[in-house]
C-alpha cells in the first residue's frame, strides 16, 4: 500500500499571534486632599496594539493603583465623558489606539485645560455647561406644528446645520482654545457650535436671540481662528467654520 501525504491546505498562511508589549504612561496626578500641586506619575502596562488609552487606564486602576480617577461611560466615542490631553492633544481616551501613538516614548496623559481641576483627570464641567445653557440650545417656535404631523423640513434645510448636530459635549474643542484658557468668560467653541445648530434650523424662531447673545465681547468675536478647536473635535465637526458662519449671520442681521 502506498502512503500519500496530505496536500497542504489552501488559503493564506495563518497570522502570527498578536503579542503584548510594555507601554509607559506618565499621568498627571492630583489629589486635593494630599497635593498642593499636580505631580507626574509613571506606570508600565502590558498592552496590545489595538488597545485604547482607556484600556490602559483601566488596567492601571484595576491592577496597580485604584486611586486613579477619570471619567468614562460608553467607551464608544458617543458620551464624550473621557476627553483628556494625550501627548499634548485633546482626544477621547476610548478612541485613541495605542498603535496610533509613538510607543517608543512614554505616553503623557493629563486633564483637559481651562477648567478647574478636581482630581487626576477630572475637571469641573460646570462652567462649560453654563455657557452651553446660556445660548439656549433647544428648538423655540411660537408657531403651532401641523396637526398630527411633525414640523416638515427639506433636505437642503437640514443639511444647513447637519454638521453641528454631531456635538457630544466632550469639551475637547473648548478646552483646546487658547482664548478659553486665559478668559474664563468666553463662551467657547462648543457653546457657539450648539447655538449654530439652532440658529440655522429653519423650524426655529429664536435665531436673533442667540445672535444677540453671541454678539458680545465674550462671544464669537473673541475667536482668533487658530483652528485648535477643529483639530481637537473627535466628531470631525468643522468648528471654526461654524463660528465664522455665526459671525457672518450677526453682520447680516439674520441667518
From TrEMBL:
Identify the pathway.
Carbohydrate metabolism; tricarboxylic acid cycle
User: Which cofactor does this sequence's record say it needs?
Assistant: [4Fe-4S] cluster; [2Fe-2S] cluster; [3Fe-4S] cluster
- Residue ranges occupied by any 4Fe-4S ferredoxin-type domain in the UniProt entry: 157-179
Keywords in alphabetical order = 2Fe-2S, 3Fe-4S, 4Fe-4S, Iron, Iron-sulfur, Metal-binding, Oxidoreductase, Tricarboxylic acid cycle
- Give the record's cofactor note, including how many are bound: Binds 1 [4Fe-4S] cluster.
Entry EC no(s): 1.3.5.1
Residues in domain 2Fe-2S ferredoxin-type?
Answer: 21-115
Catalytic activity from the UniProt record: a menaquinone + succinate = a menaquinol + fumarate
Task: Name the domain of life this protein comes from.
Answer: Bacteria
Which InterPro entries does the annotation name? Answer: 2Fe-2S_ferredoxin-like_sf (IPR036010), 2Fe-2S_ferredoxin-type (IPR001041), 4Fe4S_Fe-S-bd (IPR017896), 4Fe4S_Fe_S_CS (IPR017900), Beta-grasp_dom_sf (IPR012675), Helical_ferredxn (IPR009051), SDH/FRD_Iron-Sulfur (IPR050573), Succ_DH/fum_Rdtase_Fe-S (IPR004489)
One Gene Ontology term of the biological-process aspect is: respiratory electron transport chain
Q: Could you confirm whether the keyword Iron-sulfur appears in this record?
A: yes
Q: Give a GO molecular function annotation for the protein.
A: metal ion binding
Which Gene3D superfamilies does the record match to this protein? 3.10.20.30, Alpha-helical ferredoxin (1.10.1060.10)
For this chain, the family text in UniProt reads: Belongs to the succinate dehydrogenase/fumarate reductase iron-sulfur protein family.
Alphabetical list of PANTHER family matching this protein: SUCCINATE DEHYDROGENASE [UBIQUINONE] IRON-SULFUR SUBUNIT, MITOCHONDRIAL, SUCCINATE DEHYDROGENASE IRON-SULFUR PROTEIN
Report what the protein is called: Fumarate reductase iron-sulfur subunit
Amino acid at each position: 500500500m502506498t502512503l500519500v501525504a496530505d496536500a497542504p491546505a489552501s488559503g493564506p498562511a495563518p497570522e502570527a499571534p498578536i503579542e503584548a508589549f510594555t507601554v509607559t504612561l506618565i499621568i498627571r496626578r492630583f489629589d486635593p486632599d494630599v497635593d498642593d500641586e499636580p505631580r507626574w506619575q509613571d506606570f508600565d502596562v502590558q498592552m496590545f496594539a489595538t488597545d485604547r488609552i482607556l484600556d490602559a487606564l483601566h488596567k492601571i486602576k484595576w491592577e496597580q493603583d485604584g486611586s486613579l480617577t477619570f471619567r468614562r461611560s460608553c467607551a464608544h466615542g458617543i458620551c464624550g465623558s473621557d476627553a483628556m490631553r494625550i501627548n499634548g492633544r485633546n482626544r477621547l481616551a476610548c478612541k485613541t489606539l495605542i498603535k496610533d501613538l509613538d510607543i517608543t516614548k512614554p505616553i503623557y496623559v493629563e486633564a483637559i485645560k481651562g477648567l478647574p481641576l478636581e482630581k487626576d483627570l477630572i475637571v469641573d464641567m460646570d462652567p462649560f455647561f453654563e455657557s452651553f445653557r446660556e445660548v439656549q440650545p433647544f428648538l423655540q417656535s411660537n408657531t403651532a406644528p401641523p396637526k398630527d404631523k411633525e414640523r416638515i423640513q427639506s433636505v437642503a434645510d437640514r443639511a444647513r446645520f447637519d454638521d453641528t448636530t454631531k456635538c457630544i459635549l466632550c469639551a475637547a474643542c473648548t478646552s483646546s482654545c487658547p482664548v478659553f484658557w486665559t478668559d474664563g468668560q468666553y463662551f467657547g467653541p462648543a457653546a457657539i457650535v450648539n447655538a449654530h445648530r439652532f440658529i440655522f434650523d429653519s423650524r426655529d424662531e429664536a435665531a436673533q436671540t442667540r445672535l444677540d447673545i453671541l454678539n458680545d465681547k465674550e462671544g464669537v468675536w473673541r475667536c482668533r481662528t487658530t483652528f485648535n478647536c477643529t483639530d481637537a473635535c473627535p466628531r470631525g465637526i468643522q468648528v471654526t467654520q461654524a463660528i465664522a458662519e455665526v459671525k457672518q449671520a450677526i453682520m447680516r442681521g439674520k441667518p
